[in-house]
Amino acid sequence: MTNNTALKPPVAYTPSVEHIADDEQDVIRGLNDAFDLILTRTSEDYGHAVRSVHAKSHGVLRGEMIIADGLPPELA
Fold first, then answer.
1. What is residue 57's DSSP assignment?
2. How many folded domains does the chain comprise?
3. What are the tens digits of pLDDT across the range 12-28?
4. Is residue 67 part of a domain?
5. For 25-42, how does the pLDDT look when each residue is reduced to its tens digit (9 = 90+)?
6. 47-59: buried (b, 16+ CB within 10 Å) or exposed (e) per residue?
7. CB–CB of 54/35 below 8 Å?
8. How confident is the model at residue 59 (pLDDT cuts 50, 70, 90)?
9. Is the dihedral of CA 19, 25, 26, 30 positive or negative?
């Protein structure tokens, strides 16, 4: 058995890498609605906030990404 732990090189971004589905915004809205319902029901059932779904099943992120001017193409 081999132990191949070497990291693969990152995929350089090109517009062909990302394919946004036509219904992506609807899917995101649906997931948000489902999570809100789960959080609300769980809070009501327990009377306080608890982790309502498995910690590793999903991630929620809100942020801002700033891409600096003048980056070389491999970093842009």
1. S
2. 1
3. 888 898 889 999 999 99
4. no
5. 999 999 999 989 988 898
6. eeeeeeeeeeeee
7. no
8. low
9. positive
